[in-house]
Amino acid sequence: MSIPLRVVECVPDYHKSQVVAATPRRVTRRSDLQLRRVVGVGIISLFLLMVCLAGVGAVTVLHGLQASRDLRLVESKAVDDTFVPTVGSVQRAYGYVSVSGSVMNHGSAAATDAVAIVELLDGNDQTVQVDRAMIEFKTVSPGNASPFNVVVRDVPTAVGYRMFFRHADGSPIE
Question: Is the pTM of this model over 0.85?
Answer without folding.
Answer: no
